[in-house]
Every structure is written in structure tokens, then in C-alpha cells.
Fold this protein.
Amino acid sequence: MAWFRAASGVARLALRRNLARTPYHVARAGALPRFEPARCFHSTQLRRAAPVPRPVPLSRLTDSFLDGTSSVYLEELQRAWEADPSSVDESWDNFFRNFVGQAATSPGISGQTIQESMRLLLLVRAYQVNGHMKAKLDPLDLEEREISDDLDLALYGFTEADLDREFFLGVWRMSGFLSENRPVQTLRSILERLEQAYCGTVGYEYMHIPNRDQCNWLRERIETVKPREYSQERRQVILDRLTWSTLFENFLATKWKAAKRFGLEGGETLIPGMKEMFDRAADLGVESIVIGMPHRGRLNVLGNVVRKPLRQIFSEFSGGTKPVEEGEGLYTGTGDVKYHLGTSYDRPTRGGKMIHLSLVANPSHLEAVDPVVVGKARAKQYYSNDIERTRNMGVLIHGDGSFAGQGVVYETLHLSALPNYTTGGTIHIVVNNQVAFTTDPKCGRSSQYCTDVAKALSVPIFHVNGDDVEAVVHVCELAAEWRQTFHSDVVVDVVCYRRFGHNEIDEPSFTQPKMYRVIQDHPSALELYEKELLESGRISKDDVDRMRNKVSTILEEEFINSKDYVPRKRDWLSAYWAGFKSPEQISRIRNTGVKPEILKRVGQAITTLPENFKPHRAIKRIFQQRAEMIETEEGIDWALAEALAFATLIVEGNHVRLSGQDVERGTFSHRHAVVHDQETGEMYCPLDHIIINQDEEMFTVSNSSLSEFGVLGFELGYSMENPNSLVLWEAQFGDFANGAQVMFDQFLSSGEAKWLRQTGLAVLLPHGYDGQGPEHSSGRVERFLQMSDDNPYIIPEMDPTLRKQIQECNWQVVNVTTPANYFHVLRRQLHRDFRKPLIVMSPKNLLRHKDCKSHLSEFDDVLGHPGFDKQGTRFKRLIKDRNDHKEIEEGIDRLILCSGKVYYELDEARKNTKRNDVAICRVEQLCPFPYDLIQREFKRYPNAEIVWCQEEPMNMGAYSYVNARIYTAMRAISRGNIEDIKYIGRAPSAATATGFLSVHVQEQKEILHKAMQPEPIGFPF
Ligand SMILES: Cc1ncc(C[n+]2csc(CCOP(=O)(O)OP(=O)(O)O)c2C)c(N)n1
Ligand SMILES: [Mg+2]
């Protein structure tokens, strides 16, 4: 056991280091020591003696000192091995085979001691884990990093005398360096190999990945015997691509000296890297790539990677012309700055294939586009039946500051392996220019690398020196290979610099004087590569000049052509959207009623559970009740109405996808879209079984991760791909939706106006005052209404045959009160020739309210059935009073307009007070405002005082929005002025609701009391 005592000391030391190591912080004091194996023995590398190991609790040891997984001592392992050699890991089997029986200090089989063997192995592992710390990543050579002790030879007890000794490294169940089965190597050559593999211009971080096969796959590619070598032909292509990237920026800089373009200078190798990544991905089966990226280098990517015509880019840069559509109007939205626009093109790859690239339009809000890209990629996979997820992928470009700082990055990363959100891996490229606007990394993040957030996932991170274009190309290709092999995310961190200010007008020396002194004299990556190729004789000066001239000439030509460039084709409808209408083309209003026999048939399908299925008793009862509702056609509740909407849309061939926190059961335990067998745990989703051989994903309902920003963004991206889908995101409570505020502000409310991209995404926000306190009462309808762009003082064309009111508005905001109306508003989303976001203030206590029920005849399209009017059965924008009032009711003294569940309380109060002279109308669609129907009701009750009643505080709810519009409606028919609109509701408040139930009850009572008070209501309340 002498060997054991010696070896275990070293093993413990190593394990302690690996387990207890805290993240390194960049120490910016001393210069980065350069490792040169021959000299280092006399300098920094052997300064310290090996520290005395401290005991480690058993619980902190892991299973194998190589894989970092051991919980037993070597002694125990040896006993087990002696009893049965196959009972231990092959690595230990090898170890014991070679060393057991030898004295700890006596030379081993190949002339080395047991301790030395152990130490060597630990040294190799140290490089695998921490080699990246010593990699030469910073092109400016300014970053000062503390190199891990683990890479210090002295720690392992070696001296200069050992350098030329030969050592045995063993055969291990590990690919790469340790598997070559070259029995002996000198310590010098071992070190050289380690330095070459791990400390060159690429730093590999992968040892946090717990999967041995994946680590081995990487080791095979990292620990190669031969250094990377590109053919002459590949080098020419790389040089050509780098020339394009560099001269493109130079060209823009000379033509538009004072324009902001957020140039890529200092990070130009991104372009050859991306192109080579895409070529490799195409070779491996990728046909379509969805790209998301921020401002930096976007024009370069558009021109050189996506291949948007240069003349178009230049034309837009010169101020741009608004697009013209032949034979149609001039709908162009409000537009956006040039570096935010999206586009898509097919580009040929080096391997002779075609690849479709779409760059998603994005706002200034950094990283907000991330989940949108991933959602769009997922939708592409669904529509192209890409079951393996190898034909469509997402690529996200990030900045170093934003990748580390923006929470949505983490939220997006966490979607990556969820069954209903995965895309089989997103490739992330960080353009790490080591500064964020004016902020240094040390002030911008607490982690060592800006990419550390990605270590939450088991994915590799490749840090690469952005000045070494071949290294950038190499890791970009490796990333594509990883993604296509393991179907998971991967990160490429291109460490570069920013040659100029944050934008071209900024002065960077105000804040980073030292850095910019170095940058001033630093040659570009193109100059470095040209020099390298010239010096090695791989290319001639003539070749270089010819390449540069060719690019400059084309840029000039395209610039001249840009002056006459007239954009013709509206660049906003992808193939699936052909025939959809812009806001200026009228879209006929359609019925949303469904044939009674279809309703019955799907109704049965969605209320039936398989025979042998054993649901929870309560669920069984719910499904029985639902079946009865279909059978008797009476009492259809909210959940069944929703399921009927989904089912009928699916029968019509549409895709339905509902996602959000706990949506399968439903926050309020009402939906039960997925039921669980109480014995087997098996799950059954009735909506998956409506049509024969229904594709499992055609109806998707999925509990999401606990994120709003990320998940809403994902669904938004998903919804943009194909119009024949109803995509819904439901918040747990509407109150939480503001965690996704950027999505609402930047994408949902304004995306169409800025980028001419439509979406029919429906957002369900549980809303209503029922005493649950300030964070469980309000979906903040006021915010959505404030963002609505319909003019409060202009009544648009309301004639049903000419009406484009919804098309012209940025979205629809509804607060629906009956199951049938909910059914119709959901179906309406698809039964039209355009798409608009739908914000639904959805109910909580109406889900089980005795009066909140609909008859099946309200869902159908039968003449004479309730809801069927001249134009058929449709969503009711306004529900007139429950009483069957005639066209003119002179005896009504008060007309209460309200929206949402307060209607039922008002109706109840009216019954209790027997106020038959009060009429109550429900404004189901708040935005755009139903002027025609409101005016119809005003005319019906010529003598009534007009009251807006809401349960929200005055500064919230719909009051501010409806007030101006009610006034506009009144004024147009000479019905009064603003002072004739009375308010009933809570007083203004900072919090959305009281936290005291008793106060809530009292407030609610007062609202109802006031609504029914006999005396007139004063102005304003
Ligand atoms: C969410 C968000 N917050 C703040 C800003 C303002 N802003 C614009 S660029 C920038 C710095 C970005 O740094 P980095 O991510 O490193 O990208 P770089 O500009 O260096 O390429 C900031 C803070 C923004 N655009 N988005
Ligand atoms: Mg930066």
C-alpha cells in the first residue's frame, strides 16, 4: 500500500483543487507570463514548492480522478479491483495493472515512479481543465490573467532534470492525448503537446460537461498530434472573405464619414468565421439558418454573409427610399434604422449547396431577439418536418457586455433542452471586443469570461483570439460539427477589439486611453493574415493586390448602382404568407361559427378519455361534465369553449400551440389539457386525438420554464413563421407579464409598424379583482391600451364592407365575458387575411361562474341561432344589455359601459336592487374601439346618463383609453361632451390592488352600490 499512500495524497490534492476552486477573476496587475517549456524551469513556473495537501471530506471526492467522479478512496478501489478487475473503471484497471506491487518510490515499468504517473495524469487533466487560462486570447495583449497553479510544473514535483526523461502515460478510456497508446514520451514533448493543444490562440472550456463521450469527442479534436493546417485553396477563400469583411467597413467609413453604422472593425474575422461555419453546417445537412444579432457588424453580416444586395444596403444607408409595391398602395409602416432591419436570402455554400438565411429584425434592446430567433427556428423545424432538428438551426451573435449582462440570455439558454422548446442546439458567437460602450469588463461582469453564463448548460465554449483568422474559422467549423453531432448549444467567444468608438462618432480615448493607444498601432486582422501568407510564401503580393482591387471595384460599382436602386418587392411576406393583406388592403370579415355536426364530433373527441385510462376522480368528473355539456348543448364553460376553438381550428388544418407556466393543467385548475393516469403516470392529451393520424405536434400544449421574457419571445418568434397557426402564450397571472415588457413594447405592439412583419400571437393574461392582492389582480390592461395606436379623436370607417379598423391598428385588446365569445375571438385570429396580435384579459373566477356559460348554439353558424346576425356568427365586439331591449328604450336612466367580469357583479346588483332602468353593456373589444356599436347603444338609450364602470383604480383599467373614445363617439352624434361621461371605479392608486381582503370587499361593494344609486352620478364620479 506504499504506492497508495503516495498516490492518494496527490489525487486528493488534485480533487480538492478541482472541487473547491472558485472562479478566477482577471487580475489586471502583472503581465501575462508566456510559457516556454525550456526556460520556465528557471523562472516563474517552479517558484513554489508543492503545497501540503489538506484532508478532504469523503463526500467531496468524486469517482474517478480523471473524470472528476469518485466517492471512494483508492484503497477501497484497489480492494474491489483485486476481487474483480472489471468492477472498476477501465482507467483504474489500467492504473492498478501497471503499478500495483511496485514500491512507491521505485522506478516503474517505464522508469517512472507511481507518484510521477499520478502527477503526470493530473498535469494533463489540469491542462484540459485550465489550459484556456493560459491561452493567448487577447489580440491587444493587454489582458492580464492569473494563470492557474494547476499548470505549474513545480506543483507536480518535476525538475528540469526530468524534461528529457521518458514517461508512460497509460491507456485510458479517454480520447485525445491519453488514448494514443504511445507508451513513452519525454516530459518535454508531453508539455509541448499540452501547450499546443490548450494554450495557443484557442482556449477550450469543456471539462464542465459531464458526458464522457462528448468530452472525448472534443479531446479527439483538440489534442491532435498535427497542428491545424488549411490547404492553399482554403486559405485563399479565407483571405478573400476577410478582405470582403475589412474593405466593406473601410468603404462605408469613407463614403459616410459621419454616419453611425456600428462597424465591425477590430472584429472582422467574424465574417469569414460565420461563412465557414455556415458552409460546414450545410455540408452536415443544415438547409436553413435563422440569425439574430445586435447592431455591431450587422451591415457587414447582411452584405457579406446573408448576401443582401450591396446596392440595397448602400441605398438604405443613403437615407433609403420607401419600398414601392407595384399595383398596390404604399404601406411601409413607420420603418426602423438601417442596422435593425431583417431580411432573408438563399446563399450558395463553398460545398456547392444552397442555404437559406434569415436575419430577424430586432430592436435596440440587446439580446431581446434571442428567444424570438430560437422560437422561429423551432417553428421552421415543425413546418419542414425536421424531426431530427438537423436541417434548421438558430445562430445568435452577441456582444460581450450584453451576453454577460442581459437576463434574457440565461432565459433563452434554459429553453435549449426543453422538449417543446429545443431546436437541437443554437450556435452562439460572442463578438467580444472587451468593452461595452464605455464600460470595461471588470465593471460589467463578476465572472471571469463574458460567456460564463453558458456554463449553466453542459455545452462547450471556445474562446479564440480574433486576430487569428484561421483559428476563428477552425472553432466556427468545430461549433457547427458539435451542433450537428450532439444537438445542443455551443459558444464561440471571439476575443477581439473595437477599433473606433462605440459608434463612429464616439471618442473612445475619453474612457479607454491605454487600450486605444495600443489599438492605434495595431494592424488589422487582414494585414496580419496577408503578412503571414506572404512571409510563408503561400501567396504573392500580386494575388493580395488583385483580391483587394476586385473587392474595391465591386463595392464602387454597387455604390454607383445604389443611386438608381428602387426597392420593388415588399420584403416582408415569406412563402407561407402569400396572399395575406397589408393594412391598406381590405380583408373581408368572416364568420367564425362552426357547423353543428363538427362541433358535436370534436366535442366528443375532446371530452372522451381512453377506456383503460385512470384519471383522478375529480378529473373524471370534469370530463363527464364536459361530455354532458356537449350532449345537452348547455352550460358550456370557459375551458370547454377554449378546447372547442382549438379543436375546430385543428380540424380545419391549422396548428395550435399554447405555452406558458403550468398551462397544461391551467393555473386555476380549469383547463386539464393534459390528464395523468393516476396509476401509471401516463399522460393523455385529448386535443391530440381529433383527427385520424393526427401529428402529435399539431396541437401542442406545454408547461414552460418559469420565464416570461424568454418564453413570450420564443412564442412570438414561433408565431411569425406561418400564419396558419394559432400560437398562444399565457401568463400565470397577468401581473407577471411585465417581466416580458420589452417583448410587448418592442416587438408585439410595434413590430409590424417597424419591420412589416405580422404576427397573430394571442396573449392570455388572467385579470380581475377578486381580493388576491396587488400581484394577482391586474394584467395591466391600461398599458396595452396606452400602446394602441388608434386615434382617440377620429372614428375610422366602420361600415362592415369597408372596415379596416383592426388591420390599421397595431393590436387588439379584449376583455371577454362569455365562453362563446372567447371561442369566436380565438377563431377570428385565423379566419381573416391578415394577422394581428391579440391581448386577452382572461378571467379567473368566471372560469367557474354559474352565469358564465354559453349554449352550443352560440358556437355554430345556423341561421336563427343566438348570435347569428346578418353577417353570420361572429365575435361580438360589444354585448348589448342582457335584457331584450328594443331599438329605443326611453325609460332607461343609466347606461353602464363596462368590460370584463365586473359585468356579472353589476348584473347581480341590478337584480338585487331591481333597477330595471339601468342598462349594462359589455365592451368586449376595447381596442380598436367599437364606435359603431357604442353609438348604436347611445341611440337606444336616449335619456340615459353614460357611465364607465371598472373595478381597477382610476389610473389603471380601461378608463383613460375609453374616456376619450366614448367622448368622440358621443360628439359625433351630438350626445354630449366629456363631462357627460361619469366614472365609477376605485380611486387612483400606486399599487394595483389592496392586500387586505376586507378592504377589497368593501371597495367592490362601494362600486356596485354607486352603480345602482338612484340619484344621478356627478362629474366625474
Ligand atoms: C437592453 C439594452 N440596454 C442598454 C442598451 C444601450 N447600449 C447600446 S450598445 C451598449 C453596449 C453593448 O456592449 P456589448 O454588448 O459589449 O456590444 P458592443 O457594442 O461592444 O459590440 C449599450 C449598453 C441597449 N441597446 N440595450
Ligand atoms: Mg463589447
Notes: The radius of gyration is 34 Å. The first helix runs from residue 2 to 20.
